[in-house]
Specification:
Largest sheet: 2 strands, parallel
Structural class: mainly alpha
Strand order of the largest sheet: 1-2
Strand content: 5-15%
Distance between the termini: 35 Å
Organism: Kineothrix sedimenti
Oligomer: single chain
Number of strands: 4
Helix content: 25-40%
Pfam families: HAD_SAK_2
Protein name: HAD domain-containing protein
């Protein structure tokens, strides 16, 4: 797979240099262009437990990587049966300011149909993880452009 090969790996094994700087730059464009907030809904949020040294080190690595681009995590979605669209919808429904929130979900795991079940399919930016070419995967400029349009209400 292209991503693992780019890291010199045949298959996934966690380490502290797997976050792509290119993808961080792409995320930074969205974050700063829209004065956005990061609400973590990925499996990374499960690593934020200081009792588990190895996983917590990975979470700190994420925070440190984001900090290089002045990006901070504002909140995390709840964990509900590992159903990201439901978790996002639940997080939104619990917000008193939910009617004022514009959001995008940068997701390479869940489909538009799965997001449609919760009425939030228009906010999905469907990125790819499993691809043949590295240039096809992760957060690309086309995703950045679409995310900025959505967040700016266009």
């Amino acid at each position: 797979m292209a991503y693992f090969e780019s890291l010199g790996m045949k298959k996934y094994r966690p380490h502290h240099d797997e976050i792509s700087d290119y993808n961080l730059r792409m995320l930074s464009k969205i974050y700063h262009a829209c004065d956005a907030y990061i609400v973590l809904s990925s499996t990374w949020r499960t690593l934020d437990d200081s009792k588990h040294t190895e996983s917590y080190a990975m979470y700190k690595y994420l925070e440190d990587s984001l900090a290089k681009y002045d990006i901070k995590i504002m909140s995390k979605t709840p964990i509900i049966n590992h159903n990201r669209p439901l978790e996002i919808k639940t997080w939104l429904d619990e917000r008193v300011d939910r009617d004022d929130i514009k959001f995008v979900s940068l997701d390479d795991d869940f489909s538009k149909e799965q997001y449609r079940e919760y009425g939030i399919e228009d906010c999905l930016i469907d990125t790819k993880f499993f691809c043949k070419e590295l240039s096809e995967g992760g957060l690309q400029q086309e995703h950045v452009d679409r995310a900025i349009r959505i967040l700016n209400g266009e």
